[in-house]
Amino acid sequence: MTLQVLYFAWLRERIGQGRETVETEAETIADLIAELRAREDRYDLAFSDTSALRAALDQRLVPLDTPLADAREVAFFPPMTGG
Amino acid sequence: MSAPRIIVTEADFDLGAEAARLEDGPDTGAVVTFTGRVRDVKDGLHYMQLEHYPSMTERALTDIAEQAQARWPLSGVTIIHRHGTLRPGDRIMMVATASRHRDAALQSASFLMDYLKSRAPFWKKEVTDKGASWVEARQSDEDALESWGKD
Asked: What is the ipTM of this complex?
């Protein structure tokens, strides 16, 4: 499947881009993270602490074990600091 | 119950005009507004950069506002959140709630603030004399959210 993958805040800085198109066979968000980490050091480093990682699937905040199903967009970011 | 008023913008907003909008109808006995401002930090804040997730932000804020409307009898809810470059003293955001009674207006405004802290897709980067650093989320903010029950 083809996914739009977005990165925000320090994840964006560590990976060096805000958005990319990814071809993946991953079943869950966690599987996708494992795939990305295996690609290059900068991904491995950015995703090294999953306790500081949040994800949204098609713009909704979800746990990392959520199946990708037929999602089109996955976003990764640190805990939010709004308000 | 009217639809929540949700605004995500780089521009400043008119606090008085926003409060006045909620003073609508003879049944609204209480209007609460909360404004968050950029404060200076220990190392001298030059500015703050507020990043957000444009396609998610409005939806997340609407969702939070609708949760407040489901919990309290509100005649109006407004959430305005800025992004971009903000300097000490600038307004960052506001929430306003209106209800027949003050308890509902006060509690729902507090609820909205607790949710915005940890569930609205914004990230703050501070640029000080010592350089730039991302503001870390605080456990106390997460705990505050928990105190309202399941989200």
From this structure: 0.94
Confidence band (pLDDT; 50, 70, 90) for A50? confident
Q: Which residue of A has its CA nearest to B60?
A: A60
A67 at the B interface (CB within 8 A)? no
C-alpha B11/C-alpha B101 separation (Å) is 32
Residue range B69-87: mean pLDDT, rounded: 97
Q: For the domain that residue B64 is a member of, what is the CATH number? A: 3.90.1170.40
**A77–B121: do the CB atoms touch at under 8 Å?**
yes
Domain that holds residue A18: 2-77
Dist CA A50 CA B43 (whole Å): 30
**Cα dihedral A17, A21, A24, A28 sign:** positive
Q: List all residues 6 or more positions away from A73 whose beta carbon is below 8 Å from its beta carbon.
A: A3, A4, A5, A6, A57, A58, A59, B55
User: In terms of C-beta density within 10 A (0-12 exposed, 13-18 middle, 19 or more buried), how is residue A64 classed?
Assistant: middle
**DSSP code of residue A51:** G
Chain B partners of A9 at a C-beta cutoff of 8 Å?
Answer: 51, 123, 125, 134
Partner B contacted by A1 (CB < 8 A)? no
Q: What is the CATH number of the domain that holds A16?
A: 3.10.20.30
